[in-house]
Amino acid sequence: MDEKRDGARDTTRDRDAEGRARNARPRDGLGRPLPYGAEGVERQPEGVTRTPAETVREAQRLLDAGMPFHAHEVFEDAWKTGPDAERGLWRGLAQLAVGLTHAARGNTGGGARLLLRGAAGLAAYPETVPYGIDTGGLTAWAERLAGGLDGPVDAKESAPRLTVGAP
To answer: Where are any strands of DSSP class E within the chain?
Structure first.
């Protein structure tokens, strides 16, 4: 932080149009902050209301591009704007995406914990397949990835398929 003339720290923060604190630093494809002025990856808009099918489609596109941090933001929007009965589903999917993000960043412990937490969240949907989401396959994927983490993974190569019967 910049020092003011009297020695006190400058506590100004980046703020959005509503005045909420928001870090305006550019981010890389895994959501890590870059220095101001660096060229980063465009961020996902926040607070977008999508249909469940649009949410799954957009999140899969981002996962396929190796951008699980951005996919997590899409799931987070669904979690925050969707019906209460589905919050656990979207939260679990967001946790899987964040777990993959941490695993790709090399944070194997944090990645494994979030992958397993997300898988546990999907356990409430064992026999149903809401919106074609392969809850059983995603749970198995998360447990397999969490159990084998010993260094950074390639987010694109490690990305799961979200829906049943997806290639």
So the answer is: none
Supply 95's token pair: 């946790």
14 and 81 together in one domain = no
Take residue 13 and report the two structure tokens written for it.
């923060």
pLDDT tens-place string over residues 139-152: 999 999 999 999 99
The full DSSP string for 90-147 is HHHHHHHHHHHHHHHHT-HHHHHHHHHHHHHHHTT-SS--GGGB-HHHHHHHHHHHHH
CA distance 65 to 138: 18
This prediction has a pTM of 0.80
Rg (alpha carbons) of the chain, rounded to whole number: 18
Please answer whether residues 74 and 50 qualify as being in contact, where contact means their C-beta atoms are separated by less than 8 angstroms: yes
Spatial contact of 84 and 58, defined as CB atoms under 8 Å apart: no
Question: Which residues are CB-neighbours of 142 under 8 A, at least 6 positions away?
Answer: 96, 99, 115, 116, 118, 119, 160
Give me the number of domains the chain comprises: 2
Backbone angles phi, psi at 33, to 5 degrees: -65, 140
Examine the domain organization and report whether 36 and 74 are in the same domain.
no
Q: Which two tokens stand for residue 85?
A: 């009965």
Say if 106 falls within a structural domain: yes
Which H or E run includes 96? helix 87-105
